[in-house]
Amino acid sequence: MDKPKKKPTFRFSMYWMYAIVIIFLVGILYFDDNSMTKDVSYTNFEDYVESGGVKKIVVFSNKNEAEAFLTDSLAEKVFPGTFKKDAGLSAKILTEIPSADKLQDKIDEWKANGTFTGEVKYEKASDFSGLLWTFGPVALLIIFWFVMMRRMSGKGDGSGGVFSVGKSKARIFDKDGPIQVTFKDVAGLSEAKTEIEEIVEFLKNPQRYTNLGGKIPKGALLVGPPGTGKTLLAKAVAGEANVPFFSMSGSDFVEMFVGVGASRVRDLFRQAKEKAPCIVFIDEIDAVGRARGKNPNMGSNDERENTLNQLLIEMDGFGTNSGVIILAATNRADILDKALLRAGRFDRQIYVDLPDLNDRVAIFNVHLRKIKTDDTVDVELLARQTPGFSGADIANVCNEAALIAARHNKSTVSKQDFIDAVDRIIGGLEKRSKITTDEEKKSIAVHEAGHATISWHLRYANPLIKVTIVPRGKALGAAWYLPEERQITPTQAILDEMCATLGGRAAEEVFLGRISTGAANDLERVTKQAYAMVVYYGMSDKLPNLSYYDSTGQDYGFSKPYSDERARMIDEEVSRIINEQYERAKQILREHAEGHNKLAETLITREVIFTEDVEKIFGKRPWASRTEEILAARDEDEKLLPETTASDEAEDKSTDSQENTPTEPLNPGDEDKDNPDNLPVPPPFNGLPSDKE
């Protein structure tokens, strides 16, 4: 059945203004007869005619005016310096006459004595040209003012304007809207997803909770590092809820005009109250919710603070917002105003952390739905090779693997494509065209073999996956490791990591007798780790059980929380720890010098070595992988579980296994991935390439 055609509606736009201006200019050109005109007195008009310089006279009887067309010789005298014979212009004079009858008597006299022999015409003058010149500019100004007023009021093209800047820019999504994301598309995040699903259930079936005396939460704040799925959870709420969903960014409230932000907050909640019950989602709320009193404008009127004050009032003030639930997302919860975080405004803070091993497996499975893969793809291995990856990073890996497979004209995406994608994202693009001398190539191989040798012989060092001396990104060589899934990190694990990181420079000194700038990134990482051990973790012998880390993000201003003497002790302890691990690395390399040399030669020959190559030289590692033990224990637990029916699985679909996390963060650097104070927090122990030459 054909849909009835909508009647065309007239909408004024700036194009109409442009058309009117063009028509006006064309009209001017059309009514211009390409002539030069001069107003003269009637006496001069008679003199010009009697001199024989007039070839035609046009009499406008209704205006008592006459035009006389001049010959070229007289035109040069009347218009000196401007009239040219070959320019194609005509010259004429215009004068007022006593009357048409008297002028006709004079013309008869001139013809009788032979003074004038030209043509005489009688016409009625048109007033259109005069009206155009008189009222045209005024009409254009009126039209221009009308168009500008419509644009400023937002009625011209729907884009809003000066008179609508106080209106909310929130987009509303109904259940039949364009968002098709559901909770099935959100992998992992089982705890966060459970709480978000409960909020949706509050709106669908409020009696289930209010019958017991409970109240519907007013708001929930999603907190977590970038790319972990905070906005995706909000999209899933919009796709699942059968209520209106308002979506807005924190920066949408802020405008150059004073008072606009507060006005938009009022308009947003006014619309929300009209459509209650509903959900309002504010993404990146830290753009407007930053703690007050810390701005650098020294007490002047701050538009952002006014907007925040209005937001606080609307969320929980004297007015009631019954049925309006606020969802907000941020990765900078430490800088938000305390009044915004209190119960009654955001009753819940839902932490969306980086996915652990099990969550990464689930996220890979979601993104692999639309990708044609073959039987070689091992999702669990991919999850183990991507520690510290967010959901957005994993999506990027899957997309990059598909692009790599398409680049090689493959019909399916294989395991090697995913490995190449991980290498591409972590290490950068391979640069085989970069010119390196044999001496540089040997130095890089010795350096990388040093890392591989030491990591293989240390219990807590991460198992090796791959080492390459092919330039990649900014690095001349890189090593990939398989990090352990740890919730806490003992002192020896940090020391082993530092020792393995220093293995590259130690190998250069032991086997080449010189050092190079290739270990710059290694030294940076080791220095941060040693500093964190002393200042944050209290792992120093001379300064035990002390931490100068400020988890509130306020820092200590311009003063340090310790004296100059304590600062000297910190520097000495950092240097001692690094020097001890460096000497330890050299000792291990001397003990396994033969195996190291074989690794270096293999690298020079093949440019890439894998775990199997290291096993052939040093034998199998005596320590089992902690992650493999966890996976084996998980498989055993799954075998012991009783078989569940389909209905049981449906009821328990949101109880995915998660690794236990401590209530207090043991690594301050894991609390805020975007540390505004740039504190030297040690990097996580993951599989990112540790060697940038």
Question: What do you see in this structure?
Answer:
The chain has 693 residues and is α/β, with parallel strands linked by helices. It has helices spanning 14-31, 42-50, 72-78, 100-112, 128-152, 190-204, 207-210, 230-240, 260-274, 286-289, 303-315, 338-341, 357-367, 379-384, 391-407, 415-427, 438-456, 491-501, 503-512, 520-535, 564-591, 593-606, 611-618, 626-640, 646-651, and strands at residues 35-39, 54-60, 65-70, 90-96, 119-123, 171-173, 219-223, 245-249, 278-283, 324-330, 348-351, 464-468, 478-481, 608-610. The strands form 3 sheets. A 6-stranded mixed β-sheet has the order 6-8-9-10-7-11. Strands 1-4-3-2-5 form a 5-stranded mixed β-sheet. The longest helix is centred in the C-terminal third of the chain and has 28 residues, at 564-591.
User: pLDDT below 50 for ≥5 consecutive residues: which ranges?
Assistant: 156-160, 643-693
Secondary-structure class: alpha/beta
Count of strand segments: 14
Content of β-strand: 5-15%
Give me the side-by-side strand order of the main sheet: 6-8-9-10-7-11
Average of pLDDT: 76
Radius of gyration: 41 Å
Instruction: Tell the overall outline.
Output: elongated
Biggest sheet architecture: 6 strands, mixed
Helical content stands at 40-55%
Number of helices: 25
Distance between the amino and carboxyl termini: 68 Å
